[in-house]
Backbone:
């Protein structure tokens, strides 16, 4: 089965955004290069972890002695992107992701694969859809801006209960203290 790879080497835009109200939001990783736009659905936790790990990679690179790369410690103002998502046509829902560093181009690399049903015992037939994956390579400044925006998007949801840590819904919240 051929894999359709949505590959972006120097995207014009790469952001995480949401559609829906807090508590019922769908998170999307959206990438655009020219007129090509790809949107993949993600879980909130995937989005948060992706931002965290991108910052970790960049912070580790700053600490490398003799590092030849110019890694920003903050978000370059010219790369701030607070615009809404463009029209969303979901390519797939994200399952496994990987994150890496390409020193030859000084770019952070994200690979995203769709959720697979490992419990499905049916074999794939020749009429089944081809698999897909997304590969995004973004320069360090764009990666820093991406991580900052993603943290802000994730944090804009429902507030967490100070007792149990679960989100508080607009129509109320009840929790029980853990038993001692």
Residues:
């Amino acid at each position: 089965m051929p894999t359709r790879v949505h590959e972006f080497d120097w995207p014009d835009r790469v952001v995480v955004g949401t559609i829906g109200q807090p508590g019922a939001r769908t998170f999307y990783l959206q990438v655009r290069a020219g007129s090509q736009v790809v949107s993949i659905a993600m879980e909130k936790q995937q989005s948060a972890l992706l931002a965290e790990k991108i910052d970790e990679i960049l912070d580790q690179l700053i600490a490398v002695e003799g590092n030849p790369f110019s890694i920003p410690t903050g978000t370059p103002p010219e790369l701030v992107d607070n615009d809404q998502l463009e029209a969303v046509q979901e390519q797939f829902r994200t399952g496994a992701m990987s994150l890496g560093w390409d020193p030859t181009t000084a770019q952070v690399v994200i690979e995203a694969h769709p959720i697979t049903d490992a419990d499905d015992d049916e074999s794939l037939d020749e009429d089944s859809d081809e698999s897909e994956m997304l590969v995004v390579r973004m320069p360090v400044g764009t990666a820093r801006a991406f991580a900052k925006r993603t943290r802000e998007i994730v944090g804009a949801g429902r507030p967490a209960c100070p007792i149990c840590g679960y989100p508080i819904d607009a129509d109320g919240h009840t929790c029980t203290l853990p038993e001692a």
